[in-house]
Amino acid sequence: MWKHRIGYLVFMAAALIAYILADRPEALAFLCLLVLMPLLGGGLQWAAMAGSEVQCRAPATCRMGQKVVVRFTLRRKSRLPLGPVGIRVIFENILYEESRELKLRLQPGEEREMTFVHLMDAEDCGDLKIRGDLLECADLLGLFAFKRPAAIFQEILIYPPELKLHAELAQKPETKDFGEMYDPYKKGQDVSEVSGLRDYVPGDSMNSIHWKLSGKLDQLIVREFGRPSHYNTLILYEMVKRSGELEIPRAFNNAALALTVSLSLSLLELNLEHNVGRVIGGELQAFPVSSMGAHEQMQLSLLCTPIAGEGNGADTAYSLRRGNIRGGYTKIIYITPFYEENTARQLSQEADLTVMQIVQGKGMDYTASAGYALISVDVDAYQDIMHSMTI
Hints:
The chain is an alpha/beta fold.
């Protein structure tokens, strides 16, 4: 705008010099017109701007990776000429607690109501709030700018990519009215039912050591306890911005959210009620999922709850063990962007554990380690290759 003003002043100075040199009434009239034009143009813009408003419309929901059409509608009461209208728009993602500012410039025509389209890339999951708090209109000469507050608001829920994930259970859950039914092929922590013995491995609980037999054999032997074959299932997911010195890319967190939601839906299709949760502030916050309505509410909670700034698997395992998960869950599916063997070992001592680790460039891999199963999921290809899994 300052360039326009300087250019106009230079033009007026040239007109003034021309009038002084020519000393003719036409030159004087032209100079007076140059003086009056900014005042007249500014007055017209102020009048046109006074009755103008902008509204925003966008779909209430979409999926990550889609292009979202955001429409801005400019309405005005008169047909007075209106210069370019600038809007300061703020896109705030509640899940990642980050804001992005965008300055849009609308060029109105003669109509009283005009719609302008902005294509937005839904790059990340989360609850996205679109706000506009300021309108700015310049006159046709670009010499003055009139500002007025605006009340633009729109909310979009950006869901994770839809995965057609089919889950198969390695153990069919069973229940009965009284007592427990034990599975001889699954190890657990119920000390009333010992299912086997093996050599000690670093990370095993000291309570599981068979001290009498260890003394006879002169080496540490641990007891493997039985596990009830009816499952209380927890889908435990982690979403953090940083783990120690490691920066966690958003793609990893988006993948963790997509796998969590898809796995929950797959378990629901198997008529398996479960809980979905993560550790926040040292406490497990779990959401029970027993119906499609509860599943939708769970997704809404995931999208609207900010992710942790920093965390690690050791803190997660400590918080869960402190909360006595042994009595609460017998099956845990642990979805995480970072994998720590010690953490997995600790959790596997408390429940039947399947770890889903988000990795990059390794494809999909399944391995069975001591006491738990590990599934590696490629962050770049999981939408194409992740169709079924066994837990």
